[in-house]
Specification:
By secondary structure, this protein is an alpha+beta fold. The protein contains nine helices and six strands; from the N terminus they run βββαββααβαααααα.
C-alpha cells in the first residue's frame, strides 16, 4: 500500500455560535514542511497544531487554513460596560460641578466616545472552543489521509502498468542476444578480409574476439535489472506506507542498468528496446516523486 503526498481534507464544526472550518492541503516535498494559518484568537494553538501534523504526516508540503465565522447572528463585538459606566459618571459629575444640563440622549452621547466596544481576544476564547479547533484539524487530517490513500491506489495501478510494460519490453532483449554476437563477429572478420596484404593469426583473432564480445556482454545487467524490478514490486506492495524514497532509489538503479545495456548494445534493434524501457521508466520517476 502506498500513499500519495498530494491531497486535500476539510472539516467543519459549530460551537459557541461559531463555525470553525479547517482545510488541509498537501503537495510533495522531501521533508515535512507545515504552514499553519490561524485567526488571531487561536494563535496560541499554532505549536500544538504543528506538533499534531508532524505526528500524523511523515512528509510533504502541508498548508493548514483555520477560519472562524459567526452563526445565528452572534457577534464577537461587545459593549465595554466598565468604560461606559465610567463615562456616564464623568459626564454626570461634569454636569453637576459646571451646572450644565445632562444629555437628552445618553445613547448618542456615550456611543460616540472611544473604547466603548471591545472585541474578543485570545483570553475570551473558551477552552472547549480551543479543543474544538484541534478536533476539527484532526478530522481534516483524517480526510486528507483518505484522499492520499485514494491517490496512492491510483499511483499503485500506474506503477504496476509501467513495470509490466518494462518487463514485456525487457523480454524482447533475448531474441537479439545471439544474433547480436554473431553480427559483431561477422562484421569484424569481413572488415579484416577486405584489407589486402594483411596477414593475421586466426587463433589470436579468436581470443581478441572473445575478449571484445565479453566486454559487450549484458548478462549481468539483465540479472540486476530483473532483481530491481522484483524489488520495486515488493516495495510497492509493502504493508507499511512511506516507500516513496526507496522506490525512487530503486528506479534510479533500474535506469543505471538500462543505460549500461544501451551503451553495450552495439545494435540498432537492441538500442530501440532500451529506449522504450527508458521511456516507461521516466514516467515512473516522474510519478514516484508524489509517493509518501
Amino acid at each position: 500500500m502506498i500513499l500519495s503526498m498530494t491531497g486535500f481534507g476539510k472539516a467543519v464544526k459549530v460551537i459557541n455560535h461559531k463555525k470553525i472550518t479547517v482545510e488541509v492541503k498537501s503537495l510533495n516535498s522531501k521533508q515535512l514542511d507545515a504552514a499553519v494559518r490561524l485567526p488571531q484568537p487561536y494563535r496560541s494553538l499554532e505549536l500544538d497544531l504543528r506538533s499534531h501534523v508532524a505526528q500524523r504526516l511523515l512528509r510533504g508540503k502541508v498548508d493548514i487554513f483555520v477560519t472562524s465565522e459567526n452563526v445565528d447572528g452572534a457577534s464577537t463585538v461587545n459593549f465595554n460596560f466598565d468604560q461606559l459606566k465610567c463615562y456616564k459618571q464623568q459626564v454626570e459629575r461634569m454636569a453637576s460641578e459646571l451646572s450644565l444640563p445632562e444629555p437628552n440622549d445618553w445613547y448618542q452621547t456615550l456611543l460616540r466616545l472611544p473604547d466603548v466596544f471591545k472585541t474578543e481576544t485570545n483570553d475570551d476564547v473558551a477552552e472547549d472552543e480551543l479543543k474544538a479547533v484541534v478536533e476539527v484539524c484532526d478530522t481534516a487530517l483524517t480526510a486528507l489521509d483518505e484522499f492520499r490513500a485514494q491517490e496512492g491506489h491510483r499511483l499503485e495501478q500506474f506503477f504496476e502498468e509501467k513495470i509490466a510494460a518494462i518487463q514485456q519490453i525487457f523480454g524482447e532483449v533475448e531474441q537479439y542476444e545471439t544474433s547480436r554476437v554473431e553480427r559483431i563477429k561477422t562484421r569484424i572478420i569481413d572488415s579484416l578480409s577486405k584489407l589486402e596484404g594483411v596477414d593475421y593469426d586466426s587463433n589470436r583473432l579468436e581470443q581478441e574476439l572473445i575478449f571484445y564480445i565479453e566486454k559487450l556482454d549484458i548478462t549481468e545487467e539483465k540479472i540486476r535489472l530483473q532483481n530491481h524490478i522484483n524489488y520495486f514490486l515488493n516495495t510497492l506492495h509493502a504493508s507499511e506506507p512511506g516507500q516513496g524514497k526507496k522506490l525512487g532509489f530503486i528506479a534510479q538503479e533500474m535506469g543505471r542498468e538500462i543505460n549500461t545495456m544501451g551503451s553495450k548494445a552495439n545494435q540498432a534493434e537492441l538500442q530501440q528496446v532500451v529506449v522504450r524501457m527508458k521511456d516507461q521508466l521516466e514516467q515512473i520517476k516522474e510519478q514516484v516523486l508524489n509517493v509518501l
